[in-house]
Amino acid sequence: MPEKTVTLIITRQDDPESAPYKEEFKISSRQNMNVIGALMEIQRAPVNSKGSKVTPVIWDSNCLEEVCGACSMIINGKPRQACTALIDQLEQPIRLAPMNTFPVMRDLVIDREFMFDSLKRVQAWIPIDGTHDLGPGPRMPEADRQWAYELSKCMTCGVCLEACPNVNTGSPFIGPAAISQVRLFNEHPTGKMNAHERLEGLMGRGGITECGNSQNCVQSCPKGIPLTTSIAAMNRETTKHSIKKFFGN
């Protein structure tokens, strides 16, 4: 299949403090090339459409199979993974930009520290006391295991936060991903022991009450995680937890 020339208009930024600017590139596209492949072509020969040699465009990626979440960016106005965005399926010219919700480090590279701090806040893990062999843990019923697996697909890509209007510089909202992880770990047979601590993490400033129920998150999640279902479930659980605390139970 013959190669064709495609145009990419990339929003660039030299460092966290500098102003963003747009730069246009033209590359030869191959069949089944994804956005990562296009960026690699620019990196190989960093010359813009005016013929000027420029610094290579910087981006982040790792697994290249929509598992790590590192290559999140805005592609033609929508947040998604660059590794699964095929050039032939995108409207031309292709416009690439970093996600707005997170601080930009350089070009398309963002700092997702906010997401990881949110996971720390809600203790999104199963604590293990010691390293000795405790034997097999309790088993989950198959029905519970199936929906828990859906929640476990979260790759901390940040797309749901980018789509959420309540996650912005004027709001401390932790976002839907961390809320859904609380549901995952609180239903785990071992994780239930620390369920109240995770609920407390959701009840503070920037917690679940900051959700405006726009439902953008569930529509944009690349893994199809039922985020709004998790938010509704955690709303119930935090309400019950608050009532129990009020009555001293």
Structure description:
- 32% of the residues lie in helices and 14% in strands.
- It is α+β, with helices and mostly antiparallel strands and 249 residues long.
- The chain has two domains: 107 residues, Ubiquitin-like (UB roll), CATH 3.10.20; 134 residues, Alpha-helical ferredoxin (Fumarate Reductase Iron-sulfur Protein, Chain B, domain 2).
- The strands form two sheets. Strands 2-1-5-3-4 form a five-stranded mixed sheet. Strands 6-7 form a two-stranded antiparallel ribbon.
- The model has no long low-confidence stretch (mean pLDDT 93).
- This is succinate dehydrogenase.
- One of its GO terms (biological process) is tricarboxylic acid cycle.
- Its cofactor is [2Fe-2S] cluster; [4Fe-4S] cluster; [3Fe-4S] cluster.
- Keywords: 2Fe-2S, 3Fe-4S, 4Fe-4S, Iron, Iron-sulfur, Metal-binding, Oxidoreductase, Tricarboxylic acid cycle.
Features:
Ubiquitin-like (UB roll), alpha+beta, two-stranded antiparallel ribbon, Fumarate Reductase Iron-sulfur Protein, Chain B, domain 2, 5-stranded mixed beta sheet
Q: What are the segments in which pLDDT stays under 50 over at least 5 consecutive residues?
A: none
Radius of gyration: 21 Å
Question: How much strand?
Answer: 5-15%
Q: What's the end-to-end separation, in Å?
A: 69 Å
The helix tally amounts to 8
Structural class: alpha+beta
Largest sheet, strands/sense/barrel: 5 strands, mixed
Share of residues in helices: 25-40%
Number of strands: 7
The CATH H-level homologous superfamily of the largest domain: Alpha-helical ferredoxin
- The average pLDDT is 93
Categorize the overall geometry. elongated
Q: Architecture of the largest domain, CATH level 2?
A: Orthogonal Bundle
CATH domain fold name of the largest domain: Fumarate Reductase Iron-sulfur Protein, Chain B, domain 2
Kindly report the spatial arrangement of strands forming the biggest sheet: 2-1-5-3-4
